[in-house]
Amino acid sequence: MNLEQIYIQFRQKIKEFILRRVRNEQAAEDIVQDVFLKIHNKIDTLRDERKLESWIYQIARHSITDHFRQKKNLPLDRDEIPDVDSGQDDENFRKVADGLEPMLELLPDHYRDAIKLTEFEGLTQKEMADKLGISLSGAKSRVQRARAMLKDELLQCCHFEFDRFGKIIDYYRVSCPCCPANSKE
């Protein structure tokens, strides 16, 4: 795909993506121009054309971050920027998430309950502490340990590739009976 085709296909979607975050038409237009300038200058670094859309959105997110840093002249945490993922990112996330349930069952009961209450049922750690009759610091510790245990299980099961913000960009199974059969080998 040449640069003109990329511009035609993605310009409007990228502008809407940026506009939802900066809420200023002129600033959004400036950022769009910056994004496509970066695409033009770095298109040769894209190794896999199937990841073109993810790559473009990553450039857009970085450009938005740069915009806010320049505007406020303060460091900006990337987590402050809402994220809209491409379909491929959603698919990777769904596949990994599908493998979590069997892994949760491997955790000791009190850790499994901590994850289920906070992550799946949406309770705050304070609400979880009250429900389980434990201290808030105990609840926080339990959730943190449960997340670490789940992460260890995932990392033993699969090899993950992350972007610089810790977002999964690709993965493949190493040895895992828990992951869905349709994930990459």
Structure description:
The chain has seven helices and two strands. It has 185 residues and is mainly alpha-helical. It folds into two domains: 3-80, Orthogonal Bundle (Rna Polymerase Sigma Factor, Chain: A); 87-173, Arc Repressor Mutant, subunit A (Orthogonal Bundle), CATH 1.10.10. A hairpin with a 5-residue loop joins strand 1 and strand 2 (168-173). Helix 1 (3-22) runs antiparallel to helix 2 (25-42), helix 2 crosses helix 3 and helix 5 (109-120) crosses helix 7 (136-157). The radius of gyration is 20 Å and the shape is elongated.
CATH architecture of the largest domain: Orthogonal Bundle
Category by helix and strand content:
mainly alpha
Query: What profile does the largest beta sheet have?
Result: 2 strands, antiparallel
Taking the alpha carbons of the first and last residues, their distance comes to 28 Å
Domains (count): 2
